[in-house]
């Protein structure tokens, strides 16, 4: 599941493959930009902004992409077989004389002027892995609506950028509160720890092939994806339920013993991950 750490990794792979090199192949397979040709332009850099990717080209153009749940960018050497999915799922191809980057199932793909990047990412809060990280502002954003459920506030990229369902569940476990706790009810000592803890988790995992919040080999996560297995701390069965307005399925995991507090009336019966 792409979150801030995996998107940061994708940006690094793309930057290593494309930055400083002239494009010899360009193919954007979305109707609005199907005729756009970036061939002959030098890729300046590829950077992550929260869960967004910005690929910048000479001449003041930026390719903005977002992976959401299923999207991915794969990098292949010349002559290497592409294996990211069937051809009809390819949305973008950017290649040079050495390597080719292929974007699969990208739900967001747009070409815009670099000067207009704020139109795509200007709404984002402080980036947990970016140079604009501001822990005080991130916490203030989370607490600005004290009645809002903490889990929902953490997922709101306008508050802070980079957290998804996995880190939402893991952060709430490490803070010892349920994701359904009103943000304003978060004890002051835990609220103070939240920004630094979130940053620590994402920074620790941005260079890892397998995400881990526990430091235990083979038991990588405390709660996410573990229902109904026992909690690693207290052995209570982990629970899972959807959180949100129902417009999207957002499985949320928690331990009812280690995380006392508000919880939904119904939980899922099946394992979700």
TrEMBL record:
CDD domains (UniProt xref): AcNei2_N (cd08971)
Pfam families: Fapy_DNA_glyco, H2TH
Region (Disordered), start-end ranges: 243-273
InterPro entries named among the record's database cross-references: FPG_cat, FPG_N, H2TH_FPG, Nei2_N, Ribosomal_uS13-like_H2TH, Znf_DNA_glyclase/AP_lyase
Matching Gene3D superfamilies: 1.10.8.50, MutM-like, N-terminal (3.20.190.10)
UniProt signal peptide: none
The organism's place on the tree of life at top rank: Bacteria
Span of domain FPG-type: 222-260
Record's keyword terms, sorted: DNA damage, DNA repair, DNA-binding, Glycosidase, Hydrolase, Lyase, Metal-binding, Multifunctional enzyme, Zinc, Zinc-finger
Enzyme class: lyase
EC numbers: 4.2.99.18
Coiled coil: none
Record domain Formamidopyrimidine-DNA glycosylase catalytic: where: 2-103
Membership in a protein family: Belongs to the FPG family.
PANTHER family associated with the record: ENDONUCLEASE 8
Protein name: DNA-(apurinic or apyrimidinic site) lyase
